[in-house]
């Protein structure tokens, strides 16, 4: 089993290579890739390990990997591009273009509420099989008729999986295309990034493997994975190692409680046999957690966002304005969201230099996509060994920290 790190790294960013190699040396990785752009210059492009533990297949430069909730940033960009083109008003009523959504007291909901986890629909009211989740129109219709957990706009809670069928409905209704098709047509045509993957991509993709499990499947390959229980620490600390043991116990308890909001939000729909290696899920391209991509492609997406090639700079700037922050009813810690993008918080650890301007999205098991317009930085990291969430998975944070250090 090879664990040799390959690729190139600008000498100024040697710290990224050091962290990446250390992760392999200390057994924190099976296979993984990390890419960093400084402006339009690719300063880090590293990969290593194995893509498939069972066969020993090596991770190659173009090996794609499942990105879990990193998908949400692409869905958000698609929805925001339509707003930029005048298809709808972000702060206008959802019922203006989706009349059925007004049922059960949701008539005051805005598109901004759908995009910032304020819609009050963090979980389906019934168990949804993975096969049914492939029908985006039906899932959106189901959510439109559902009673909200809170009045839209009055609170926020991470919509781990339902987010995709809410924000994604903006794209489906107003463009006539799925999120995956719209993104590929409009801004990812030259990137190895798919939301709804063809079989040949699924075949060569990295296979997810469960790491140590201190909770019932939390972050594992066969566990729930629309989002992930936050690791320990606070956004105000230079390192998230500042422990909050009681918080971690509370999160682990919530994740394993089948009645908790966290469990219901992250595990329904469940991906079924094979977890998120299940081809049924990968073909369907859930717009909350259904993306297969390479690290260079995901970093390239953020590079293009930061450079104004996907959205106008004023559109992105408005999208990064925090719309929801503070106690998260799903994740039980403080979170912060703009219009679809995470902002620095307990659920999106960001090194000190990026706390005012960084944005992006994490994914279950440890993946991350990050952009920073002020620093001109874009970072993507994709592992196939799911991190130990309850103990605090800091791989992405350490790599991002090293990337910022390379800019100085």
UniProtKB/TrEMBL annotation:
Residues 209-242 are annotated as: Disordered. Residues 217-227 have a biased composition (Gly residues). Keywords: Hydrolase. It holds the Pfam family Beta-lactamase. The keyword Glycoprotein does not apply. GO terms for molecular function: hydrolase activity. Residues 18-397 form the Beta-lactamase-related domain. PANTHER family: BETA-LACTAMASE-RELATED (PTHR43319), BETA-LACTAMASE-RELATED DOMAIN-CONTAINING PROTEIN (PTHR43319:SF3). This is Class A beta-lactamase-related serine hydrolase. It comes from Actinomadura darangshiensis.
């Amino acid at each position: 089993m090879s664990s040799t790190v390959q690729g190139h790294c600008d000498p100024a960013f040697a710290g990224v290579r050091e962290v990446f190699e250390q992760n392999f040396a200390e057994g924190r990785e099976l296979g993984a890739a990390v890419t960093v752009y400084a402006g339009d210059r690719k300063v880090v492009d590293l990969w290593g390990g194995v893509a498939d533990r069972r066969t020993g297949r090596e991770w190659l430069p173009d090996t794609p990997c499942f990105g879990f909730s990193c998908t949400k940033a692409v869905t958000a960009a698609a929805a925001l591009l339509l707003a930029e083109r005048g298809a709808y008003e972000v702060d206008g009523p959802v019922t203006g273009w989706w009349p059925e959504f007004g049922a059960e007291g949701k008539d005051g909901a805005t598109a901004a509420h759908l995009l910032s986890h304020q819609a009050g629909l963090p979980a389906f009211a019934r168990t949804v099989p993975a096969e049914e989740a492939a029908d985006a129109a039906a899932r959106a219709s189901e959510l439109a008729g559902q009673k909200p957990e809170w009045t839209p706009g009055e609170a926020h809670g991470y919509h781990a999986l339902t987010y995709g069928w809410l924000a994604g409905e903006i794209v489906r209704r107003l463009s006539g295309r799925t999120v995956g098709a719209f993104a590929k047509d409009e801004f990812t045509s030259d990137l190895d990034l798919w939301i709804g993957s063809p079989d040949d991509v699924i075949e060569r993709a990295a296979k997810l493997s469960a790491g140590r499990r201190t909770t019932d499947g939390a972050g594992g390959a066969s566990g729930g994975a629309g989002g992930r229980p936050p690791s320990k620490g606070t956004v105000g600390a230079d390192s998230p190692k500042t422990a909050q043991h009681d918080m971690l116990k509370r999160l682990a308890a919530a994740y394993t409680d089948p009645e908790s909001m966290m469990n219901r939000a992250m595990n329904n729909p469940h991906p079924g046999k094979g977890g998120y290696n299940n081809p049924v899920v990968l073909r369907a391209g859930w717009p909350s957690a259904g993306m297969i991509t390479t690290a260079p492609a995901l970093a390239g997406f953020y590079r293009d966002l930061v450079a104004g090639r996907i959205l106008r700079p004023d559109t992105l700037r408005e999208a990064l304005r925090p719309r929801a922050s503070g106690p998260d009813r799903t994740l039980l810690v403080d979170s912060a969201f703009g219009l679809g993008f995470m902002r620095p918080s307990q659920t999106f650890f960001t090194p000190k230099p990026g706390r005012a301007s960084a944005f992006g999205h994490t994914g279950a098991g440890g993946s991350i996509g990050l952009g920073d317009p002020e620093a001109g930085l874009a970072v993507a990291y994709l592992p196939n060994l799911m991190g130990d969430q309850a103990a605090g998975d800091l791989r992405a944070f350490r790599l991002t920290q090293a990337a910022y250090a390379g800019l100085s």
